[in-house]
Every structure is written in C-alpha cells, then in structure tokens.
Design goal:
The structure is a single chain. By secondary structure, the chain is of the alpha/beta class. It has a domain of about 190 residues: Nucleoside phosphorylase domain (Rossmann fold). It has six helices and eleven strands. Strands 1, 2, 3, 4, 5, 6, 7, 8, 9, 10 and 11 form an eleven-stranded mixed β-sheet that branches. The protein is globular, with a radius of gyration of 18 Å.
C-alpha cells in the first residue's frame, strides 16, 4: 500500500489550481527537453498534487508543439502515482451539450506530427493500449465530477486548425463522442511511464457537424471554457477529498514488466539514461 500523489494536467482555460495548500511552483528538469511549464505542487487535505498547465501559463504552446514526453517525465520525477488530464473538447454527439463533462474510456489517435514513445532504437518496448485509461481512477473522477457522462471515445486530431465538416461527419460515423487535440500521445506516454491515467473532456462546442449552425470559432467558446475551468477546479478538490486513504496497487503500475523486448546486450546506454524515471523500476541502474 502507498499514498496518492495526483498529477493534474490542465488544458485550455485551466492554468492553476487555487485550492492547493502550501502551493509553490517547482521547476523539474527532464532529459526529454523542456516541459510546458513548472509544476504547481501542494496538497488538498492529505493528498499531494502536482499541477501542470498543458499549454503553459498564458497558453503559449500549440498542441502540435507540446513536449508530451517531458510533461509526463517531470510528473513521474515529481513522484506522481496517477494522472488526471482535463481537456477542452468539441462534441460529436447531440446529447453531449456544451458544458457537459465526459470521462472518456477510449481514444482514436489521428495525430501525426508528435513523438509518441519514450522507447525506440536501442531500447524497444511495446505496451498494451487496449484499455487506455485506468477504470478505477476514471470511476473516482466521474464520482467527483457529479453530473458527468461515463465513457466515450475521444478523437485526437493534429490541429491546430479545427475540423472540416467532412472530417467531423467521418468521426461521428466512427462512433466517436468528442474531439480534441491533446490527449494523444499523452495517454500513451502515461502508460509507458506506468502511470494510471484518466481524462475528463470539458465540452465547449458542437464541433462543426451541425450544418444549420455557424462553424466553431475560438471566440464563441471562451465563455464556456471559463465556466468549465471553474467546475474543473471544483472537481479536483472533490476528487482529492474523496480518494481512499490508501492507494491500492494498480496493474498499470507494473505494465513494463513484460513490455521490454531489446536484449540487454543490445541496449543503448544513452537512451537508458534518459529512461531513468520512466522505466527505472525495470531497468538496471
């Protein structure tokens, strides 16, 4: 048994958590480059949290330019046991109206310009993504959110432009529920770092599939985004206050046990050094 330390990745409109006690911004270095920002570390009650604004304070970093590997790596180095990601999303379903929170359970990855793995030549690994979120953590998050849709498929697009109408209709035909630009490869990298991951999609608009409405524009979603951010901060507080006192082990904690495939004598020492936090549990010192 061990305690919780929750990493919170805040999306558009969520750049700080004002309820943190003893809060301080801490800079954590990563061999994977510069993360989006420093970590805002503190606690709510007895639960430690580390908050990372995904796009940086002031929303400086575009989705395609996020250093997702550094972001996950610094959360791992900070001692996080689990990650809750919060993201602004567009709705692909009539029943998921702006303002709705969706705790997703599946992803379709349509990104193409991003580094998607910590592993590569010199240290190859393959983790399962069949069930890409942690069901236990997702259930805790959904309980804390109150009125939230449980389950749904998140279509991760490259961006930074919004969809065409044809794309939006295609994604609807695939059975996707919401669309965004940031959950992938974030969720994949969290799995490689053995960090249980849950994602709350905060619906801001109806994408562009409603032909009788004007297409989505940033200016139209800012108010909804602002209101969603206030509710997201309340969700974080409710989650911290509702977590069990003890964190039981998760199978995701040990998902690298059978994922490494490169023979020990063929492994690249330089890459192994960069993996010290992400995979140090299964790699020799």
């Amino acid at each position: 048994m061990a305690g919780w330390k929750i990493g919170i990745i805040g999306g558009s409109g969520l750049y700080a958590i004002d309820a943190l006690e003893g809060a301080e911004w801490r800079t954590v270095a990563s061999p994977w480059g510069k993360p989006s920002d420093a970590l805002l570390c503190g606690r709510i009650g007895t639960v430690e949290l580390a908050f990372l604004p995904r796009h940086g304070r002031g929303h400086r970093v575009s989705p395609s330019e996020l250093n997702n590997r550094a972001n996950i790596d610094v959360l791992k180095r900070a001692g996080c046991t689990d990650i809750v990601a919060i993201s602004a999303v567009g709705s692909l379903r009539e029943e998921l109206a702006p303002g709705r929170f969706v705790v997703v359970d599946q992803f379709v990855d349509r990104t193409f310009a991003r580094a998607k793995s910590f592993f590569g030549t010199g240290m190859v690994a393959h983790v399962s993504m069949a069930d890409p979120v942690c069901p236990r953590l997702s259930a805790l998050v959904a309980d804390a959110a109150g009125e939230a849709t449980r389950g749904g498929t998140y279509l991760a697009m490259e961006g930074p432009q919004f969809s065409t109408r044809a794309e939006s209709e295609l994604y609807r035909s695939w059975g996707c529920s919401v669309i965004g630009m940031t959950a992938m490869p974030e969720a994949k990298l969290a799995r490689e770092a053995e960090l249980p991951y849950a994602l709350v999609g905060m619906v801001t608009d109806y994408d562009c599939w409603r032909v009788d409405e004007a297409p989505v524009e940033v200016g139209n979603i800012l108010k909804v985004m602002h209101d969603n951010a206030a509710r997201a901060r309340a969700l974080v507080v409710a989650l911290a206050q509702s977590l069990p006192a003890e964190r039981a082990p998760s199978p995701i904690d040990t998902c690298l046990d059978f994922a490494l495939i490169t023979a020990p004598e063929a492994r690249d020492p330089a890459l192994l050094a960069k993996l010290d936090a992400v995979a140090g549990r299964v790699l020799p010192a």
